[in-house]
From TrEMBL:
This is NAD(P)H dehydrogenase. Pfam families: Flavodoxin_2. It comes from Evtepia gabavorous. It comes from the Bacteria. Residues 1-192 form the Flavodoxin-like fold domain.
């Protein structure tokens, strides 16, 4: 099993979300001893949103089927993974813009999805599982827009079937038992990974 860990925990070692991701990676190794986990730390990537020039360049490369171009390295890596583990803090009801830039780079027609003769998209990725981890300063309630967005995109365009999340909430609420909340989330992470067997 090949796991791609898309690390969008911008605060690095201070990140509570990264703490959950580390628990997830440990649980993956324990539950699936032959699993390989590859990490992509978005904070270390020079990711930019598509602009007029890069969009035109990408379109020309797609038409020429020149998918070995370095521009497509994120999409190739994404398409080759069995499991996508995303760690991203809850920012503005969603996630950091860096992750949205990454989404533009993995959404490549001919690599991660393709349009069928009926005009509908279908998936070309090896994997069909997304595991999304987040922590939020306040309560999320029914506004987990980051996960909901990825679920919509990966489910509809790339045929992902197994999409789950774990969230620790109220991490910035003074007086809230944050450590208990994080430990509860860690247990949920372990239980979810066990259920993949
Ligand atoms: C730029 C920014 C935006 C944030 N937006 C929200 C938000 O919309 N709702 C919320 O509950 N918390 C928000 N927070 C608080 C974070 O969700 C919270 O601190 C989270 O635990 C951060 O995760 P981390 O420790 O992994 O960095 C925001 C924090 C930052 C820095």
């Amino acid at each position: 099993m090949k796991v791609l860990f898309v690390n969008c925990c911008i605060r690095g070692e201070a990140s509570r979300t990264l703490r959950l991701c580390r628990v997830a990676i440990e649980a993956i190794h324990t539950t699936f001893p032959t699993a390989e986990v590859e990490e992509l730390c978005l904070d270390q990537e020079a990711l930019l949103p598509l602009h007029s020039d890069t969009l035109a360049q990408r379109h020309a490369l797609e038409v020429a089927q020149a998918f070995d171009h370095p521009m497509f390295r994120y999409a190739r890596q994404f398409a080759a993974a069995d499991v996508i583990l995303v760690g991203a803090p809850y920012w503005e009801y969603q996630f950091p813009a860096l992750l949205r830039c990454y989404v533009e780079h993995i959404s490549v027609s001919g690599l991660t999805f393709a349009y069928g003769e009926d005009g509908r998209p279908h998936g070309l990725c090896k994997g069909d599982r997304l595991f999304y981890l987040t922590t939020a300063g306040g309560p999320i309630l029914d506004r987990n827009c980051g996960f909901d967005y990825l679920k919509t995109l990966l489910g509809n365009m790339m045929d992902f079937k197994k999409m789950d999340y774990v969230a620790a909430e109220c991490t910035d609420v003074i007086g809230y038992p944050v450590e208990e909340e994080l430990q509860k989330a860690e247990e949920q992470v372990r239980a979810q990974i066990q259920s993949w067997r």
